[in-house]
Amino acid sequence: MSHSASLEFWLRGPVPGVPALLQPVAHALLQAREELATALADFPPALLNERPAGLASVGFHLQHLAGVLDRTFAYARGEALTPVQQAQLAAETEPLPPDFETLTQLQQHFNQQVDHALAQLCSTDFAVLTELRGVGRAQVPSTVIGLLVHAAEHTTRHLGQLLVTAKWVRRDA
C-alpha cells in the first residue's frame, strides 16, 4: 500500500473536478466508501438483520446510507422525492434476505450513490450553494450547501453505527 493510500481521503489531496468548497463532502463520501468496503469484506450475510440490543441492523444502515445520499442530493437539486424514493425510504426498515447477493447488491448500490453524488458535486455551481431548498413534505428550509454537508455528515454517522453493529454481531455470532 502506498503512503498516500494509507492516509484518510482528506489528506490525499483534492478530488479532481470537485469545487474547493465541496472537497470536504467528497472526501467524507470517499472515506465512507473505503471504510465500508473494508468492514464488510468478510461480513457474514446471515447477520444482515441482526439487531443487538434493539439497535438498527447492518442491513438497515446499508440501505439508509444509499437512500440518504439519493434523497439529500435530490433536494439539493431542488427536486421533490419520487414515488420510488419514497417507497425505498419506507422499505429501509424491512428485513432483508440474509445472503451474499443481497449484501453485494447493497454495497454496489451505495457505491453507485457515491458516484452519483461525486458527479453532482463536480457539476454544482458555486453560485447556487446558498440558494434555499425545501426538505420533505413540509419543505423545511435548507440550502444547497447545507444539504450537501448534511449528506456527508449523515453518511459518516450511519457508517460509524454500522461499523459498531457489525463488530457487535460478529462477536456474538
Could you characterize the architecture of this molecule?
The protein has 173 residues and is mainly alpha-helical. The protein has one domain: Four Helix Bundle (Hemerythrin (Met), subunit A). 57% of the residues lie in helices and 5% in strands. The protein is built from five helices and two strands, in the order ααααββα. The protein has helices spanning 23-39, 58-76, 83-91, 100-123, 144-172, and strands at residues 132-135, 140-143. The protein has a two-stranded antiparallel ribbon. A hairpin with a 4-residue loop joins β1 (132-135) and β2 (140-143). α1 (23-39) runs antiparallel to α4 and α2 packs antiparallel against α5 (144-172). The chain is globular. The model has no long low-confidence stretch (mean pLDDT 95).
What topology emerges from the helices and strands here?
Layout lengths: L22 H17 L18 H19 L6 H9 L8 H24 L8 E4 L4 E4 H29 L1
Antiparallel strand pairs: 1-2
> How is the CATH topology named?
Four Helix Bundle (Hemerythrin (Met), subunit A)
Q: How many distinct beta strands?
A: 2
Query: In percent, how much strand structure appears in the residues?
Result: under 5%
Global structural class: mainly alpha
